[in-house]
Design a protein that fits this description.
globular, alpha+beta, 95 residues, two-stranded antiparallel ribbon, single chain, three-stranded antiparallel β-sheet
Length: 95
């Protein structure tokens, strides 16, 4: 069972992402982002995974917070050294 609330939800049209979190869930997400930012500043190519319990993790909730939404079971977050993102590295299969 999740110890926090963190969910990434898509609306019915799949064109809007909603992030819901309690204080612990939001801190978990913020810590992941700060860690990725630090690694990317050091010219690394970091990434992090967040999974729901349904997918073997414990970071994400599986119950939608809004009617008609669906929860994502896996969120993968990439950090890149600059604004070009993955473009210069696509041939190296980082993406």
């Amino acid at each position: 069972m999740n110890k926090n609330l963190l969910s990434f939800e898509l609306d019915q049209d799949n064109d809007q992402l909603f992030i819901h979190g309690d204080p612990n869930g939001l801190r978990l997400f913020a810590e992941k982002l700060l860690s990725l930012a630090s690694a990317a500043e050091n010219l690394e190519f970091p990434h992090a995974h967040l999974f729901s319990e349904d997918w073997g993790g414990e970071e994400l909730a599986s119950e939608p917070q809004e009617i008609g939404h669906r929860c994502l079971n896996h969120v993968k977050i990439y950090g890149w050294p600059d604004i070009r993102g993955a473009a210069p590295y696509k041939e190296q299969k980082f993406v």
